[in-house]
Specification:
696 residues; alpha+beta; five-stranded mixed beta sheet; two-stranded antiparallel sheet; 28 helices
């Protein structure tokens, strides 16, 4: 993890520092993205600069070129970094060029860090940092401070690393250096990843993403996204890991950033390894390996080799797994990299165990266990130390703030000015609050008026809908039969039809008049419910009497279609309900049954006694209905109407009116129907008190 942020800093170095020291060279680099192109360009500049007439090795421009070229060659020709840094150091000391000497010390520290010599790396970093502070080279001081913190991270002194990063962050904030704030916060996140404290690491990455958004630097964003992808892979959030690493790879491939691309390919391989997709893991590890062949980054290569060893082992290629694990184990021992030793020892233990080489397996298991125990004890101690370091740092910061407040308290004159300003502020605040109060009152009144307007608008819409439906029914279901009746009478009056012919129309006229009467009754009941609200006046009624009355009323219609009307409602079926409304319900349901039952059918009315209510049903052997019709027939204002088996008309109001009346009487109504089999309409009525007593 930490090596990535180191690389991020190096990208910053060769882009930004060149700008700082020689504008002409920088302008020629700004459009070069690939590291090899940058190296070749720097070498060409050095050659051209040496061939100038007034060339001098003691020129600061020449020293800057040496240091910049060394930075670029770090992961390609590390020995060149060493020799170039020594040359830059010699010239800088001879010419008392402090900035050049600081950068040379930074280069030497990086060289020793990559060689695993942390002692010499720390010594050079400290010298460079102190010299930069003395020379007021603030940007260089921040860079070296960061690399010093990284080196303490490599040796496992997380508490010291955290302290150095926190101090660096404070200085970066003072200098408003967003780039260094991004780098150092990300390096602190890597400390928490090493502690397996993924939640805290994500908090720091969130802060880094905010800073990167302000920087609007796609390389910085891609680098951070790579680190986040690695974190998600460790957490097992593999979809997030894959999404983030693919995003980073697209940037690194387009800009040809080789070292970062090698790392990104490795993370993609690790993500597939976590998914146990070993062939795909090896594919991406090999992509990274090909790029590492062009690099000199031993510390970074350990993680790659470990991953490849695990992927080969998972793919049952034990020989290749062993080769890579042993190579990584060798590098880890050379750099005294405990975590690398631990991972390699575990892999080598598994391979030896599979090969039945139990002596070797035991040896690596002991190494693994010893390192694990050491790291475990060390990690616990580091966690406490990191926490204490943070607390101490915050306490020290508070002490600085208290001292600052005491200093401000001495400036009494400012206090009086502040009080006067506060008085003005309070006055303005009171006026604003008063204005807000008046505004809220006006808004409340406006909302009330608006709500009343909306209510009236809704009521008006309902009235208009009622009016439209009323006129529609009158126009379609009443005007037609009445007009036909009127025309027939005119024909008889004008002598165009004799009495005998007129009498043949009497049965049809009677049927039409009965339909008109029935429609008018429904229409009046519905209009009353819509206009004035349906008023329910419950009383004790005999349901059997209402059923018998309606059967007698509709018996002639039944006889005309040879339909049997049967009542199986027991005598004294007493209910507590509005008799007039239930009479309308029963009449509508029987009328509907007659309408949709073909000749020679049967309509049966039944009543079943429940605990405290009657369940009334009207069954027919009619044409039935489909699911869509069943869903719509009870909906208010749905106006679903069809012609009966003998083309009988209806208003479409009956069933919605029935539903409203039944519910007004605390009952419920529903239908069961099968196409071509018939329909059964059910509704419930509350028993009267006498019926309840009798039942109990």
């Amino acid at each position: 993890m930490s090596r990535i942020k180191t690389k991020k800093l190096f990208q910053l170095n060769h882009i930004k520092c060149t700008f700082a020291f020689f504008a002409v060279v920088a302008l020629s680099f700004q459009n070069i993205s690939a590291q090899q192109s940058s190296i070749d360009s720097l070498k060409l500049r050095l050659t051209e600069y040496k061939n100038t007439v007034n060339f001098s090795t003691k020129d600061s421009v020449y020293v800057n070129l040496l240091n910049t070229l060394g930075d670029e060659l770090r992961y390609y020709k590390t020995d060149s970094l060493f020799s170039l840094s020594l040359e830059a150091m010699r010239i800088s000391q001879e010419t008392n060029y402090k900035a050049g000497e600081c950068r040379a010390l930074l280069g030497l520290g990086n060289y020793y860090s990559d060689k695993g010599n942390s002692k010499l790396a720390i010594e050079n970093f400290k010298k460079g940092r102190d010299l930069a502070a003395e020379s007021s080279e603030n940007k260089l001081e921040l860079r070296i401070q960061n690399n010093l913190g990284l080196e303490y991270t490599f040796v496992g002194d997380y508490a010291r690393a955290l302290e150095i990063f926190l101090i660096g962050i404070e200085k970066a904030e003072a200098q408003n250096s967003k780039k260094m704030l991004s780098i150092m916060n990300e390096n602190i996140a890597s400390l928490y990843v090493a502690q397996k404290d993924f939640k805290q690491a994500l908090e720091f990455y969130k802060e880094v993403k905010k800073i990167n958004a302000e920087l609007k630097n796609e390389i910085f964003t891609a680098e951070t996204t790579s680190n986040i992808a690695s974190l998600y892979a460790e957490m097992g959030e593999l979809e997030y890991a894959m999404f983030n690493i693919n995003s980073s790879i697209s940037v690194f491939e387009r800009l040809q950033i080789t070292d970062w691309l090698a790392y990104a390919y490795e993370i993609k391989g690790k993500t597939y390894l976590k998914q146990k997709k070993y062939k795909w893991a090896l594919h991406w590890y090999r992509q990274s390996e090909m790029l590492h062949d062009k690099l000199q980054d031993t510390r970074g290569e350990i993680s790659l080799l470990n991953g490849m060893a695990q992927a080969y082992f998972g793919n049952h290629q034990d020989s290749l797994s062993k080769t890579h694990a042993l190579k990584a184990y060798k590098f880890s021992n050379e750099l005294n990299f405990k975590e690398g030793i631990q991972e390699c020892a575990e892999t080598l233990y598994l391979i030896s165990k599979k090969e039945a080489d139990y002596a070797t397996a035991l040896k690596f298991h002991e190494i693994y266990q010893t390192v694990t125990d050491t790291l475990s004890r060390s990690e616990n101690k580091k966690s406490l130390t990191m926490l204490k370091t943070q607390v101490d740092y915050e306490r020290q910061k508070e002490e600085w703030e208290i001292a600052n407040e005491k200093s401000l308290a001495k400036q009494r004159n400012y206090v009086y000015i502040a009080v006067f300003i506060l008085f003005i502020f309070l006055t303005v605040t009171i006026l604003i609050k008063r204005s807000e109060k008046i505004q809220r009152k006006l808004n409340t009144e406006l909302n009330i008026k608006q709500n009343n307007l909306e209510i009236r608008e809704s009521e008006l819409s309902e009235i208009n809908a009622t009016k439209d439906k009323l006129f529609s029914i009158i126009g379609h279901d009443l005007r037609g039969p009445i007009g036909a009746f009127q025309g027939l009478l005119n024909l008889f009056r004008d002598g165009e039809m004799n009495q005998e012919e007129f009498m043949t129309f009497i049965p049809k006229l009677r049927n039409d008049i009965e339909n008109i009467s029935f429609t008018l009754n429904n229409l009046l009941s519905w209009g009353q419910s819509q206009m004035n609200g349906l008023i329910t006046k419950p009383s004790k009624i005999a349901v059997d009497a209402l059923v018998n009355d309606n059967i007698r009323l509709l018996s002639e219609l039944a006889q005309n279609k040879s339909i049997q009307l049967i009542s199986r409602v027991p005598n004294n079926t007493l209910a507590w309900t509005d008799g007039d409304q239930i009479d309308i319900v029963i009449r509508n349901l029987i009328s509907n049954a007659l309408k949709f039952t073909p000749e020679d059918g049967i309509i049966t009315v039944e009543a079943v006694e429940k605990n405290d209510y009657w369940e009334i049903s009207v069954r027919d052997t009619g044409i039935g209905m489909d699911e869509e019709t069943k869903r719509l027939i009870f909906e208010e204002n749905s106006a679903v109407t069809t012609y009966g088996t003998n083309d009988e008309k209806g208003t479409g109001l009956g069933l919605s009116l029935c539903k409203e009346m039944i519910e007004k009487n605390n009952g419920s109504i529903w239908v069961e129907s099968i196409p071509n089999k018939g329909s059964s309409f059910y509704f419930t009525l509350t028993k009267s008190n006498e019926a309840l007593k009798k039942a109990s």
